[in-house]
Amino acid sequence: MIVDDIVIHNMTSRDIPQVIEIEELSFTAPWSEEAFKNEVCRNICARYQVAYLNDKIIGYGGMWVIVDEGHITNIAVHPEYRGIGVGKMIMEALIKVAKGEGVKSMTLEVRRTNLIALNLYKKYGFAIEGLRPRYYADNNEDAFIMWKKDL
After folding, report:
1. DSSP alpha helices (H): ranges in the chain?
2. Spatial distance between the Cα atoms of 104 and 99, rounded to a whole number of angstroms
3. If pLDDT is split at 50, 70 and 90, which confidence band does 1 have?
4. pLDDT mean over 17-46
5. Angle (deg, nearest 10), helices 86-100 and 115-123
6. Beta strand spans in 34-139 (E)
7. What is the DSSP letter of 30?
C-alpha cells in the first residue's frame, strides 16, 4: 500500500523547490520561494514537515510555535496524492511536534468553502471559534478561525 511507503521529515531548504510546485498547484495565491526560505531558514517559530514518497515530496505542512500555542500556517498535498491520507499524516506529525514542544492549544484559519480541510481539522478536534471576514485576498472569502484546546 502506498501510504506505508510515505515518510514524514522536517522540511529543509533543499525541499523548497518541490514544496513550491505543490504550493502552486494547490493555492490561487501561492507563497513565494522567498517566503518558504524565510520560514525554513530564518523564522525561529516555524516548524515544517514534508511527506516523502520515495524521493518525491507529495505534501507539506507548517506551523508557528509561539510560547504554548501552535498556529498552523499551511497544509497542502500534491493533487495526484490527495484522498489517500497524506493530509492526516502531516496533521499528525504537526500535532506530535507541537506536543513535544509543550504546546497546549493549536489554531488555524481555513476558507469557509474548504470542506475537505474543515473535515480534516474537525477529525483532529479543532472547532470553529470565530470568523475573519474577507480574510483571503484572492477572492475576499471569509475564513473560519478554528482552535484545538485540548492538546
Report:
1. 16-26, 33-37, 86-100, 115-123
2. 7
3. low
4. 96
5. 50
6. 46-53, 56-66, 69-77, 105-111, 127-132
7. P
- What are the sequence ranges of the domains in the chain? 2-148
pLDDT of residue 138: 87
Half-sphere exposure of 55 (CA within 13 A, CB side): 1
Burial-class residue 26 by CB neighbours within 10 Å (0-12, 13-18, 19+): middle
Q: What's the rounded Cα separation, in Å, for the pair 30 and 18? A: 13
Cell of 60: 507539506
Query: Where do the H-state alpha helices sit in 2-102?
Result: 16-26, 33-37, 86-100
Tens-place pLDDT, residues 85-140 = 999 999 999 999 999 999 999 999 999 999 999 999 999 999 999 999 999 988 99
Catalytic residues: 109, 121
94, 70 Cβ separation under 8 angstroms: yes
Look up the pTM and report it: 0.94
Give dist(CA 73, CA 31) in Å, integer. Answer: 11
2-148 domain in CATH 3.40.50.1000?
Answer: no
